[in-house]
């Protein structure tokens, strides 16, 4: 009889332990229909919504930086869909909540119109770069052109380039700045040609190799300055924002509550010119996959990754 009661007790104890374990698993990780999870990171911060969408425009800094942020967040436990779009859809998708954040807000000047339109639905999470200047630029061998003012009524230069400023995608803030600059500086004979950054760089490289004149809108940080001797034209009217914009990570409202660990990583992320100049050339000058470049950077700089994920992982 004692033996029988002993066996019954063992079975009951085992069942209670099993139920407790199941209950703990349910509390630690539960997922609802919209992809949110109660799972916590090893640092104790909840992942929350595990599926994130990150739009970016294929600009020099934005491409590798976006893939780097995605790789860091995936290392923490998220699934990040990195989507290449144009500038307008990048801003509107984060504002309407169909995307979660972006790392490409140039403020206060370059993206002023987008910020004015969508600021009520967005949050500035983190200023990651200060003094990111924009301007019209020419190769340094164009010794007689040092200011935007030097373009006005410059018959020799104008005819040599068909009075063309070789631009990028139409929705880019720097293109809007350039249209304003053309008005402010009276560049009535000049035409701003829309293309893409890749097409603009191809034309710039071709002209540079032949030491031919060319005028393009450029900005820093940009990998071009590491492989070509370029100069940014003086802008006395400060149409392009003077010393330069600040670059922000901007998120949709509610992301901090929906994905606490991701938001914390974005807040802790840091950036400088040296870092960006390491990321850009492999992607644009060596044609490497930006996802692979991001992974390699993380392997080469574990101290930075640890800093960005402190308290999370």
UniProtKB/TrEMBL annotation:
Entry's localization field: Cell membrane
Domain ABC-type glycine betaine transport system substrate-binding: 50-299
Signal sequence region: 1-20
GO BP, sorted A to Z: choline transport; glycine betaine transport
CDD domains per UniProt: PBP2_OpuAC_like (cd13639)
SUPFAM superfamilies hit by this protein: Periplasmic binding protein-like II (SSF53850)
Any one GO molecular function term: carnitine transmembrane transporter activity
One cellular component term from this protein's GO annotations in UniProt: ATP-binding cassette (ABC) transporter complex
Residue numbers spanned by region Disordered: 26-46
Gene3D superfamilies: Dipeptide-binding Protein, Domain 3, Glycine betaine-binding periplasmic protein, domain 2
InterPro entries named among the record's database cross-references: ABC_Gly_betaine_transp_sub-bd
Keywords: Cell membrane, Membrane, Signal, Transport
Entry-linked PROSITE patterns: PROKAR_LIPOPROTEIN
Name of protein: Glycine/betaine ABC transporter substrate-binding protein
Organism: Lederbergia galactosidilytica
Lineage of the species this protein comes from: Bacteria, Bacillati, Bacillota, Bacilli, Bacillales
């Amino acid at each position: 009889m004692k033996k029988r009661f002993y066996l019954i007790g063992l079975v009951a104890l085992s069942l209670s332990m099993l139920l407790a374990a199941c209950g703990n698993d349910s509390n630690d990780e539960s997922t609802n229909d919209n992809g949110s999870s109660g799972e916590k990171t090893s640092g104790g911060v909840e992942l929350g919504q595990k599926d994130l969408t990150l739009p970016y425009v294929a600009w020099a800094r934005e491409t590798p930086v976006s893939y780097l942020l995605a790789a860091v967040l995936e290392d923490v436990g998220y699934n990040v869909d990195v989507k290449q779009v144009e500038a307008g859809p990048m801003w509107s998708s984060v504002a309407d909540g169909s995307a979660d954040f972006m790392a490409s807000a140039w403020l206060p000047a370059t993206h002023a119109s987008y910020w004015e339109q969508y600021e009520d639905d967005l949050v500035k999470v983190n200023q990651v770069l200060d003094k990111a200047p924009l301007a019209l630029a020419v190769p340094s061998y164009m010794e007689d052109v040092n200011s935007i003012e030097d373009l006005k009524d410059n018959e020799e230069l104008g005819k040599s380039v068909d009075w063309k400023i070789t631009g990028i995608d139409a929705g880019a803030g720097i293109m809007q700045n350039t249209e304003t600059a053309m008005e402010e500086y009276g560049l009535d004979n000049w035409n701003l040609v829309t293309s893409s950054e890749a097409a603009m760089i191809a034309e710039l490289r071709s002209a540079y190799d032949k030491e031919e004149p060319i005028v393009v809108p450029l900005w820093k940080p940009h990998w071009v300055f590491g492989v070509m001797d370029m100069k940014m034209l003086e802008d006395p009217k400060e149409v392009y924002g003077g010393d330069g914009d600040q670059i922000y990570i901007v998120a949709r409202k509610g992301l901090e509550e929906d994905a606490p660990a991701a938001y914390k990583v974005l807040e802790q992320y840091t950036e400088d010119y040296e870092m960006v100049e390491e990321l850009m050339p492999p992607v644009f000058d060596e044609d490497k996959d930006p996802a692979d470049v991001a992974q390699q950077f993380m392997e080469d700089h574990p101290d930075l990754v640890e800093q960005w994920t402190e308290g999370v992982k």
